[in-house]
From TrEMBL:
Residues 23-182 form the RNA ligase domain. The lineage of its organism: Archaea, Methanobacteriati, Methanobacteriota, Stenosarchaea group, Halobacteria. This is RNA ligase domain-containing protein. It comes from Natronorubrum tibetense GA33. It holds the Pfam family RNA_ligase.
């Protein structure tokens, strides 16, 4: 599977990026590198920034929400009808779970598309095509701040980073791209100074009680019903874990966190059963 393209800082931008042609300015989001590819068998193959996983269940837990999102939303037939060989195409995205920026997780999708590699053409697709491709297969592309900006009139030194599309605050930065595949990033000054999240100093039981709330269970149970899916223990448990991971990944998986993740999952499982039992009793009553 094709590797992620490097995105240098603007001080190391490729030659002539800011001298000719037109630029697209895309929001740089604080996500985790994520890629996938449709195989001829119809199965999806996934990878993070460094590894590729032939078995989707082997993808690390923090990325499982992104795996499920792609599986549920990608229109395989639309992709097959658009290209001669689906395995020629590699999709690059950001898995949106918490690192340093606390996005509005209710409206931020699990996956935001950022790039598309075409092996047949031997190059990355231009940004306007990338946007259309992701929308065409049922996924949301990363948002664009400006389209077709004249390169010769763009001054990266005086550019002000806009507000993010995904929370009430500034974007982590901007990725500047042209149609020749050149790119560079401009980081918001705060992104260099932003402190990382604090580790969780609590027992697994306390952490589970904090994050696996009745409100979260109700929200996800209703969402499953609206999708026409049964609210079973396994399904609800997986969705709750994924939802918590997106919001609290950086704290739960912090190297100094007190939470043992196996115990945490067991506590969430117990709370899931308790919620479903109460829900069943309430329905029966």
């Amino acid at each position: 599977m094709k590797d992620f393209p490097p995105v240098p800082n603007v001080t190391d931008a490729p030659d002539r990026l800011f001298e000719e042609g037109h630029l697209w300015l895309l929001e740089k989001v604080d996500g985790a590198g994520f890629r996938f590819q449709l195989q001829q068998s119809g199965l999806l193959r996934f990878g993070d920034r460094n590894r590729v996983y032939d078995d989707p269940d082997a993808v690390p837990e923090p990325y499982q929400h992104a795996v499920r999102h792609v599986r549920e939303h990608v229109d395989r037939e639309a992709l097959r009808s658009a290209v001669d060989d689906v395995e020629d195409i590699v999709f690059f995205a950001e898995a949106m779970h918490h690192h340093r920026i606390s996005y509005d997780w209710e409206r931020t999708p699990s996956v935001l598309g950022v790039d598309v590699w075409s092996a047949d053409a031997g190059k990355f697709r231009p940004p306007d095509a990338v946007e259309a491709i992701f929308e065409g297969i049922g996924l949301e592309p990363v948002n664009v701040f400006e389209r077709e900006c004249r390169a010769q009139y763009f001054d990266p030194d005086s550019y002000t980073i806009p507000q993010s599309n995904w929370y009430d605050g500034p974007a982590e930065g901007v990725v500047v791209r042209n149609k020749r595949g050149q790119r560079a990033k401009i980081l918001h000054p705060e992104s260099r100074e932003r402190d990382g999240p604090e580790p969780i100093e609590a027992s697994a039981e306390e952490a589970a009680t904090t994050y696996a709330t009745r409100g979260r269970f109700r929200k996800l149970a209703i969402r499953l019903e609206e999708q026409g899916r049964p609210v079973t223990f396994e399904t609800l448990y997986e969705r709750v874990l994924e939802d918590i991971t997106r919001e609290a990944h950086a704290r739960l998986h912090h190297s100094q966190s007190d939470v043992e993740m196996g115990d945490f999952r067991s506590e969430v499982a117990a709370l899931t059963r308790e919620f479903l039992d109460e829900r069943t009793d309430g329905a029966a009553g």
